[in-house]
Design goal:
By secondary structure, this protein is of the alpha/beta class. Helices cover about 35% and strands about 15% of the residues. The protein has 20 helices and 19 strands. The protein is globular and about 75 Å long. The protein starts with about 30 loop residues before the first strand and ends in an 8-residue tail after the last helix.
Length: about 625
Amino acid sequence: MSPLRPATLLCAALPLLSACVSVADAATPRPLAASPVFEQWRETLHRGSDDLLTAGLGIDALRSTTAPPFATAAQPTADEARRRAIWSSWRGIADLTPGGGFGEVYGTVQAAPGREFSAYARVPGARHPHRVLVQVPDDFDVARRCLVVAASSGSRGIYGAIAVAGSWGLAHGCAVAYTDKGTGSDYYDLDAHAGFLADGTPATDGALAFVPTDATATHGIAVKHAHSGDNPEADWGRHLLQALQFGLQALDRAYPRAAPFTAANTRTLGVGVSNGGGAVLRAAELDVDAFDAMVAGEPNVSVAGAPPLYDVVTQSALLMPCALLALEDLPQPPLQAQATQAGTTRCAQLHAAGYVQGEDTAAQARSARQQLAEAGLSDGALRAGAFSAGFDLWRAIAVTYASAYGRYGAGAHPCGYSFSAAGADGRPGPAPAELRATWWSEGSGIPPGSGVVLVDGNAASSAEEPLRGLACLRALGSGDSADARRVRAGIAEAAAKAPRRGLPIVVIHGVDDGLVPIHMTSDRYVPLARDAGAQIAYWRVNNAQHFDSLLAFPDYRKRYVPLLPYVFAAMDQVWAHLEDAARALPQDALIRPTPRADAPLRRDHLSIPAAASR
């Protein structure tokens, strides 16, 4: 059961604060507001050869590079779409390689039979719904009721947090509630007028999860994150809160004799990584008494008054391919030779356009590197960022977020970008039905990927391609045009505020994070939270970058450790405190682990901080 909210001094519950305060001195959050109305309710059973955590795949099938098949390629069943979505979500987040430690040193893939409830939810003022889903394991104990609440990492679909929240929560007998936080893989094919139903199957009519309402384009693909017109990041906290509310309603349906399930009688833990971690911190600032504690890993969070992460993204998209030539000992990504050639070309383009100084490639690379260092990117972050530069991820992120911040519909991107399916020759064209059927299960929410390509409208007319488009994206964050003001207004809406006082929070971040740089995000958020009296612990992890899944590459696991073990450990320690207030909350730590290289991961490699005693 959830511990009673304190009515006396908070000293015992606030070990991270230097002074003790009384409830009269602290802001009292409002009780949880009435739950919204959820639409398109579904309930499904997952037992026997199926389960909640791996859809019956188990660790070997999750490791496979071959996706679970569709019997009919163009029209998967709901079960087939779900199974492939779970497979894709696991592979995108966790290091599942033999010897990597998942399921042995931390986490679990043990089958969890139970029920799923899913629906559409809508925050006030939004044009489109977001997905919510709750997994209720058969071993849920109504006498010890608990709910873990998570938002998908990145812009992934509804199962995007299953490797984190599902693995931990289901193993603890808790229900687990998810939200795609208004992003996700509900792509819409403008040519075929086709999207996805609540069960993840493709369709041209019915209650589709996303149908663009203001698209000016008639061809190509509308992506929910970019083209909903809702600027979902501004509402990430409210998305997470609605997932919690849906979780309580689902438990009412699952156990009607034990109803009502409320935030007062059900222990609640919010958790997420990357964008999911950002959603956790945004929910922490809401003035409602809903969550008992929060754990945020590598959170994408921009603090009001500080340069937004969009600036880092657009500057990295522009300069990093060149800057990496000034660094030695880069991780060995695929396409290393191509990346070197692309960097040389980019340096020359940047010099011609006046972005970097120097008469040769080496000097130009040093100039680009210096600019990124002044923006807050350490050499460690630059090295880890080589992956994002090599796969053009920076540009893809900038395109999607600029469209979302400015609330542009498909076909209206101010820098001329769009998304399309790729034909057999690689050129944009209509999507085959067989390809379209895979998007809900495998789409990342930010193309390119899954047969969807990023189309640069500047390419046909500009000899400087892709520099013209990249410069346009950068100007949206700093210029004075109407589009720039529109985008910056959306960025301001998404800035984080201080969390509510007294809520236990743990933030975990890799020091070498090359996608969400620690100096631009967590290092700024934690002081903001502390200045407001937050009860927050901060774990900074050396030799850790953003993508655990990259540890499948030998050179990466020689350099880095996975970050998920620390998220699991923080949840363990926070949970122990919630169950027994005599157990201390986590404390600040600078963690110095040892990468496993080619040896199997051991717990002592990780140097996880021990739970402090009182």
